[in-house]
Every structure is written in C-alpha cells, then in structure tokens.
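Q: What structure does this chain adopt?
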Amino acid sequence: MDNLIIFSGNANLPLAEKICRHLEIPLGQAAVGKFSDGEIFVEFRENVRGRDVYIIQPTSMPTNEHLMELLIMMDALKRASAGSITAVVPYYAYARQDRKTAPRMPITAKLVADLITIAGAHRLITMDLHSGQIQGFFNIPVDHLYAAPVTLEYVRQTFAEDAVMVSPDAGGVERARAFAKRLGTSLAIIDKRREGPAIKAMTLIGNVWGKEAVILDDMVTTGSTLTMAAEILMRHGARAVHACVTHPVMSSSALGKLQSSLLQSLAVTDTIALTPEVAALGKIRVLSVAPLLGEAIRRIHNRDSVSSLFV
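A:
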C-alpha cells in the first residue's frame, strides 16, 4: 500500500478519514480553500509523482463548488505527474439529468462525465447512481458500487420478519424486489405520477396491512416523495413506516417535511455529510459505507477483483 495515497476535498472529510482508518493509512495532506474573490485554491503538500492517487469528493451541495474542487484537484495531480488518478464520487450530482425530457434541454450528467475525464481521471468509483446507464457516459473504467450490503444488514437486524419492502416509484422496483428476495419478505409498489416537479398522485400496489413498511430509495432531496409515501402506506393499514435511502441530499425544505412526516425512522448512508440540523433530527440513522469504499480502493490498488462488491 506504500504507493497508494488518498486525498479529500471539502465535501465529506469525515468519510475520507473513515476510509483511511479502514485501510490503515494516513490521509494525504492537501490545502483546498478559496481566494478572496471566491476562486478555489488547491495545493498538495506531499509528493505524488508516480503514485496511485484517490480523491474522495462527493459532488453534494453546494454542488458546483464541490465539483470544481474535484476538477481542480485532478488537474493539479495530473500536472504533478501522478501515476494514476481515481475520482471517488460516492454521490454523483446531476445524475437525474441523464436524458432529454423536452426539446432544447441538456444532458448534464454526460457533461459532468466529460469534465471529470478531461480533468485527468483514469477511473471513477461511485455508488448507487440514479441511472445506471450513466456508466456509459464515461470512456474510462467505472466501478459502480451499491450500498445494498450495508442497508440489507441494517434492515435484517432492525425490522420484523413480516416487514414489506416498498418502492416509492416504478424506477425503484428492481431495488425493492432484490431486497424482498434476499430478506424473504413481500413487496409493494407506489405508482407515483408527476406534473413537472410536483407529485400529483400516488397509488399503492400490494398489501401492507398490519405490517412494518420499509421504503427504499436512492436519494432524498425535498422529502416530498417519502412524506407522501408514508401517508398512503399508513392509510392502507401499515403498522409503521420507515425509510432507507442511500444519498441524503436534503434540500432546505426537507428537514421540516421529514420532521412532521409519519416516518418513524430514516436510515441514510454517509456518502454525503449531514448538516448539523439534519444530524440532530431524531429520526435519522446514519450507516457508514466507508468500509465498502475502502475495500474497493484496496482491491483496485492491488489489482484484485471487485466483482463481489457489486451486489
């Protein structure tokens, strides 16, 4: 592991520190800040020539600032003759803009992929992409990990055997079905209909009467989907409603909605650092994906197979 070095931007320093503790190596020394005019400043304070470098940087809010930090850090490493540069982006921003939904609209997820590649990345490690096809936007290797092993263990230890796995929309059915199969539980689906960004209607498919319902989703942004899903599940006789979400994006309006919602608990991972206000919410449970990411980094560095992590 002597040739391996890990750096972190400002997006999620605690996650980077956990990954380094798992790998039993120190976090690389780097200064990432701003000039007085707001431009981003980067300086690496360790020799990286010929070394395998990993940058831990989810592109969470403020999205554009953290994305620019990542790009500038990779450019600096490229110009410092790093042997290889791997961008570890647990949360990939702009993933929902993966296709044109109307004329004269961008495909921003592809633009971000181009920026990361041109800035100097040789490989990308990411987790629970909103759309799996984003991997095809890259012409470099992409290791797409899943938080499912961590979440599965939490669900198995926390909820009763008669719990029902719930997909909050049609796009998440495959995820919920996989959980239900592995846990030996039943499955329910919520048919969500939108008009623009607003949710207009929800219909439940499946039986949740008298059971604990566990909603599974890849991210929570405004909290509207989880709040409305919890309401319809309780109306259909669920004993309690919980949620497990990978990425706690948490816009400014989410905190109030989740606090007053019928959700009894919300389990999230640490792909995104929580604000103090969100972390203080009594319903929040944080599951760490640092060991999973650390093991992926170890195997990639040692040229070992990582296929067993893609579950």
